[in-house]
Amino acid sequence: MKRRSILLVDDDPGLLRLLSIRLKSAGYTVTAAESGEEALANMSAARPDVVITDLRMGGMDGLALFEAIHQDHPTLPVIILTAHGSIPDAVEATRSGVFSFVTKPFDSQKLLEQVAAALEVSGGSESNDAPAAEDWSEHIISRSAPMKNVLSKARMVADSDASVFIRGDSGTGKELLAQAVHRASRRREQPFIAVNCGAIPEPLLESELFGHRKGSFTGATQDHQGLFQAADGGTLFLDEIGDMPQPLQVKLLRVLQEGQVRPVGATSSVPVDVRIISATHRQLDEEMQEGRFREDLYYRLNVVSLELPALADRREDIPLLANHFLQTLAQKYDKLARSFAPDAMERLVSAPWPGNVRQLYNVVEQTVTLSTTPVIPDSLVQSALRDEPGSILPFADARRRFEKDYLARLLQTTGGNVSQAARLARRNRTEFYKLLHRHQIDPSLFKAQDR
């Protein structure tokens, strides 16, 4: 299992060294910083599981560091150490959300107990008596701080039965996160069932969710158990809940309130014990204002909200994801591809990704299937991005592409006659030759085609 990471901050190099040794010997990965400013710089590269900081430091003190951390990482536990312990300091720190306040000199064992307690509260504890939960988030590949914040919050809520509402653009991985919450929960041994509420017609969706009795409508030739009953004891993931028709919203609300479902055509209800995770790419605040989504259902579903960042907001994850997809797909298709050329990876990292992780997977899949060499070149990535529906090229790339196609069409029209092509473009001959040279276009090739 992954070792838990601690960011240790103290302007005393000797104490910093001593604490690092003790924490490392306890099995933690430790990053040391001698100032609050250095600590924040370290956090921009990797989010730790716990922060331990001295209170009195030159420059940014411990409380200022805590406030800066919690602006971006509100669930990250911070333990503050001080040689100037006082009741006012402790009260101020704990009221503002600091996890604990430890005075120097301190007992090492007590500090380790505080670290373990912080990890337990934040969902990062290694002392988990359910081995199946250890790999709860293994399918979510990320090293970005926004994703670590989401996963930390998800882990904290997983063991409760609170309904979870996942927001995020299409392709960000909402179902993967729902599966991760289920695997980290006490329901992990029971079913996880997902249904896309926008992909099933309204008459069928009611039967799909709640079941029906034989003869209840045309085509109901036998009893059908709905997804609520199939997920009994486990988790039901309602994807694109914003697309659910209003009549079904009323029935879903009743199920959530009463804990029982009544199949279509049945005269009695059936009790169900189901944890609900729902998701949407829609702005439900606007949907409620327009009367398209019930406010009472929204608050029943949105007990805890998790928001997945767009891929463009976690670009540091693109190389990780692209290489992971590459290895998986190369094995699937028995291809030679092993890596991306540096300029190909640069293009992947800088692309706009309106389709998020799903679009990245599609692009990598296309490059792998078309690759003939161990290193995937930039030309294949560029072609795959261009072929993606709705993809938007950066302005410089779009301009280069237009210029190249425009010049080629002119030369095709004039049979490779540069002077004539320059006149059509209303450019002098010298400037036109410079454009051809920039795009590595040889006019003689068009003359050969003309013959």
TrEMBL record:
Gene Ontology MF, one: DNA binding
Any one of the GO BP annotations: regulation of DNA-templated transcription
Keyword match Calcium: no
CDD domains per UniProt: AAA
SUPFAM superfamilies xrefs: CheY-like, Homeodomain-like, P-loop containing nucleoside triphosphate hydrolases
Superkingdom, taxonomy of origin: Bacteria
Residue ranges annotated for the Sigma-54 factor interaction domain, each copy included: 140-369
Domain named Response regulatory: residues: 5-119
SMART domains named in the record: AAA (SM00382), REC (SM00448)
Modified-residue entries (4-aspartylphosphate), positions: D54
Record bears the keyword Nucleotide-binding: yes
Pfam families, A to Z: AAA_lid_14, HTH_8, Response_reg, Sigma54_activat
PANTHER family according to UniProt: TRANSCRIPTIONAL REGULATORY PROTEIN, TRANSCRIPTIONAL REGULATORY PROTEIN GLRR
Protein name: Two component, sigma54 specific, transcriptional regulator, Fis family
Originating species: Aquisalimonas asiatica
Higher taxonomy: Bacteria, Pseudomonadati, Pseudomonadota, Gammaproteobacteria, Chromatiales
